[in-house]
What we know:
This protein is an alpha/beta fold. It contains 11 helices and 5 strands. The N and C termini lie far apart (about 75 Å).
Amino acid sequence: MDPKSSVKSIENILKEVSYEELPNILEKFKSDSRQGVQNLIKRYQKKYDAYVIELNRIKKLNTYENNWHSKGYEVVAGIDEVGRGPLAGPVVAAAVILPKDCCILGINDSKKLTPSKREELFDIIHEEAISIGIGIVDPQTIDELNILQATFKAMKIALEKLEIVPDMLIIDGNNTLPDVPIPQQNIVGGDGKSISIAAASIIAKVTRDRIMNAYHELYPEYDFIKHKGYGTENHIKAIQQRGLCPIHRRSFTQNFLQ
Length: 258
């Protein structure tokens, strides 16, 4: 590698090199005293340092999964739901089985991610996961059962749709999934502590958002594309002015009707 290469050519090399190779490449260029090269080294060293921090965060996110793997549980599924609180639309749950020591950079609690990042990770999770199951329970069933039982139903549907039967479930929150003969661990705030639950939270969130975006096309007067059915001021005003549409949860909205 020629240390007298142009600054631009060095930048092109740094852009294309893998993170694993980056430290060695940076070391080779450190003796180049040109300010442009030194600036590149500083910039890419920061990128590498951030990469190492992210790797360590992902390693920590695998702690719960690795704990169960070490105890002989081969197939661990993370489960999470989205949509318990909205005034309209379904509750959606996802169950995700990831490979051991899975490393998906950027994965996190779906609430901490931008919509575009969630969409990006949604595709990556589908590529990396061993199996994914999704359960969707409609507003009418939520009204019939209550939201907790409807959430359990969505989780069970997601579990049944997995192509592989897990031998351990790790579930976000503090409610054990009833009538399921598989060992379970509940983790409060699990979508920020477990990589499998984080993956499930992203799958469930993107799936539900897409459903609500489609409902916006049917009922644009409620602006579902903006609030996804949650009880924003504008949503409540629309209910008071126009009444309910077919995807509203009657049990959640009676207080807003005249």
